[in-house]
Structures are given as structure tokens and as C-alpha cells.
């Protein structure tokens, strides 16, 4: 089953890292990710830009409204995501625990079953 693992973090912490701090964290995250990538179980992984770069389209009374920023003000924000292929939820939990242990910027990892309803290659 595919799972989306959503990484939440305090943006002010993560986006304040120096290039050296960022590289050190990414090296640890790559070490956790590599066995899954080698086995073909790791799908797309992405980091989102800060919420200050977000645009939200919200349903309006007559037509959709386009507004700057996220839809809600929160202390932590969705920072990025993983798509992984595991047989069980326990495997997804174990992977999320590994990510959490090496990522000092994360506050939580949310795990949701993931359904691909329109397969395709977004890289083109």
C-alpha cells in the first residue's frame, strides 16, 4: 500500500538553518531514505517552500477567491512529504520514527494511506 508521510515543522527553525546545518540534516535524512530508494519503495519526496510563498484558492460565494498565504495561521506548517510503498502501517510508522529521530526541524509526521487515481510522470 502507498502511504503519504507528511512532515510538519516550525518554519522559522528550518528556514533559519545555515547551508552547513541544512546539509548535515539532509545527509542524515538521505541515510534513512537510501534503503527504501534502493528497494524501489520510495516514491516522490519533496520539501515545500515557506507558507509565505503559498497561494490559496478558497471557495467563494459566487466564484473562487485567490488569496496569498496558507489557509490557516498555525505554529507548525506542512514542510514536505514522502510517498512510500509499505506492506503495513507498522512499516510506515517505523520509517517515520527514523525520519523524526534525525530531523531536528520536524515536529510531527502524519501518515495517510495514499491512493493514486491518476498515474503519470510529473517530471516532464
TrEMBL record:
It comes from the Bacteria. Belongs to the YciI family. PANTHER family: BLL7171 PROTEIN, BLL7171 PROTEIN-RELATED. Residues 1-114 form the YCII-related domain. Coiled coil: none annotated. This is YCII-related domain-containing protein. Signal peptide: none annotated. Pfam families: YCII.
Amino acid at each position: 500500500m502507498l502511504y503519504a508521510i507528511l512532515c510538519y515543522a516550525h518554519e522559522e527553525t528550518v528556514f533559519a538553518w545555515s547551508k552547513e546545518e541544512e546539509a548535515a540534516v539532509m545527509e542524515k535524512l538521505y541515510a534513512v531514505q537510501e534503503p527504501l530508494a534502493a528497494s524501489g519503495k520510495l516514491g516522490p519526496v519533496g520539501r515545500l517552500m515557506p507558507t509565505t510563498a503559498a497561494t490559496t484558492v478558497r471557495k467563494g460565494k459566487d466564484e473562487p477567491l485567490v488569496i496569498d498565504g496558507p489557509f490557516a495561521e498555525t505554529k507548525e506548517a506542512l514542510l514536505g512529504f514522502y510517498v512510500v510503498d509499505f506492506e503495513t502501517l507498522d512499516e510506515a510508522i517505523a520509517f517515520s520514527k527514523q525520519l523524526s529521530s534525525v530531523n531536528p526541524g520536524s515536529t510531527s509526521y502524519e501518515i495517510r494511506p495514499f491512493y493514486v487515481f491518476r498515474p503519470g510522470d510529473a517530471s516532464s
